[in-house]
């Protein structure tokens, strides 16, 4: 018997035999549903045999036969009713288990998020791509038509999505382009570190989505529920269908606050803050200003995360303020890093380490935050060094800046576009999907091994635009992404270590060393971060002005 768990109350299985019924009972099942019609296969036991064996062991049974490939809406309703009537847990079976998994997916579609349904069936080894539109439609069969169709559909209206939309418009203004995003507000997220350091006001980092949408681009204000790449369709919440000729996927990533036990309940109070949220960055600055003594913890979760330098930036700006206020000697700064190095590109480590020393910050590598109790001012970290068994340590704090674990959005992880880790699976040079040739991805959601930063998206946008236009013209991709990313590390107020690098940690400086030497703290880099980059973001990057990011071209041989 090959029982595959869907949830605590249901498992599904390929065809079972009368002998398997005893195994089912031994595994704790109390009822069995047969979803395979008798006589479907030459070697198939009849339901009566299963029923007799089950009855002898005190198990209940039901016969709900479904013809392969013909699961009707009424069948799903009947299956859901059986799950409420029968004692659980229940084992349902058919030839492979697919019909049983499909029935469950449709039966619970009204009550469960689509991503949860797809995740549960995928974990059990069943692909629900063929009925995803019905799942989105609450388990009912929708009309098979497109509510809208565009030349290019872009999923995500963040830095990556709007930049690539504008870049495509600048190349081919006649294309019909749509951006799908449910958000009312577009945020300049790189500015939140500066908000947490008292440099910017939060309002400076936000504009309405409508005000930054590129001219001539349609904005579909909705969330995406699922993808049907075989049919060139995106399914929206409410089962509206948007068809495309070419698709670009860039919805960013998901901040998984719930993965740290107790964190959600205490964010924004009890000294628990994070610059990774617009509404919390001002609280960071309030805590820093008010702190005169005690312990301040700064955390960094396992990679990948958005802007790997951001956890340190919060520490540096806080330490600088305490240094200027003359209270640094009374504050115990702890940097809890789940990784094993201060920064992934070794050329920048000496400068950064000098500032850790300056602020007397203690570095704790292989420390991953797992739980927090805000009122008690305690945090727990799993310490997992390469040479020792994992252990848990408890640390008290007066202030803690938390960087949450980060994963791909749910609707991406369960989609046909994702790799085994849940990220959109692209060729790292062309950013084209490895399986679906009319799909591209950029920004934080794709799986190329580059830093997830706004600067990376700025470089990727014209590359995707160029390659998509090449495809329209019938050419192979000509623009190549070298993995460029940038992380302006705010080591003190007025100075920045401007880290710029590509694949494999290769240094990719934008300026000559006499202008900005990225391996050393620089006032010029601070000026760039504070005064030049914000207006550049709003007025150039989001409008398709590709200054200093001309795509590198494939050279003919």
UniProtKB/TrEMBL annotation:
Residues 150-255 form the FAD/NAD(P)-binding domain. One of its GO terms (molecular function) is quinone binding. Its cofactor is FAD. It comes from the Bacteria. The keyword Cell cycle does not apply. Keywords: FAD, Flavoprotein, Oxidoreductase, Quinone, Transit peptide. It holds the Pfam family Pyr_redox_2. Residues 2-109 form the Beta-lactamase hydrolase-like protein phosphatase-like domain. One of its GO terms (biological process) is sulfide oxidation, using sulfide:quinone oxidoreductase. This is Sulfide:quinone oxidoreductase. It comes from Roseicyclus marinus.
